Amino acid sequence: xxxAVTVLGLGPMGxxxxxxxxxxxxxxxxxxxxxxRDRELVERxxxxxxxxxxxxxxxPLTVICVVNYDASDAVLRTEPVTRALKGRxxxxxxxxxxxRARDTGDWAERHGIRxxxxxxxxxxxxxxxxxxxxxxxxPEDLYAEHRAVLExxxxxxxxxxxxxxxAAAYDIALLDVFWTAMAGYAHAVAIARAEGISARELAxxxxxxxxxxxxxxxxxxxxFDDGGFSGEGNPLTSGLSTMTHVVHASQEHGIDAGVMRxxxxxxxxxxxxxHGTDGYIRVAEVLGRRA
Length: 291
Ligand code: NDP
Hints:
binds NADPH dihydro-nicotinamide-adenine-dinucleotide phosphate, alpha/beta
């Protein structure tokens, strides 16, 4: 396994990545736009580069992890950094859209930079542990070449295919699940408090709801892929009625019901299109119809 890696971007995530590489015994060079964020890493043995191009030149593999691709462009698409990357491998673990990932792949190809895209699916606390999850996409042989270094971060690494935008596509879909669930939870604890129920009291029941979801995801995935949409036992009309209860209860407490209203509106439209006896996942098919 090659022994040197550069990490660009030392926010909470970038610092954890660099720390995990150090703990795995790699020679680690770090750089961040705002100086001073490398102090603890340098104390642990990292080399703190004075410039991004200097950091890139120190290793065959550079991992960048910044807030988004506007930020990674600001770091990478400037000389002498682009020149320093020529012939080296760049892995972008920042989050953004599949389109931005593919655009970065095109830019990298034009500049002779070997490029892999990726995303981190778990919080900073998991990095370097078996609980961390990473997804990657781009040329298979390039991934195979750097796999051992990437796996030094611990956890599960999955290469999702040669299309460089594929990791970001999974990331976006999974962020969609995560943030809508988080928004539902935030709204639920607001309603519960208005009803005199603490978040702690609600928590075990909320966890119970969460455990219902994994088997439902699997069931609905098969229905969606195969176009079955069976609403037997739980037709959309019945679900829609319970969504309306949440909107009404929110209104009674003067709590913003915007998120649930949006959810209710997509379900109502699906019913109005004649799918009231179908299962909930018919909504996804309707959402995906081109106007
Ligand atoms: P942030 O998303 O806040 O990113 C902070 C980093 O971005 C810092 O290094 C910051 O530099 C840099 N940055 C921001 N704007 C610019 C710019 N214009 N030019 C150069 N650098 C810039 O924090 P995280 O480190 O937590 O996240 C990094 C990435 O990891 C994000 O894409 C995030 O979505 C992803 N991620 C994070 C998780 C987490 O739990 N934190 C979990 C999974 C993924 P400076 O210090 O100079 O401001």
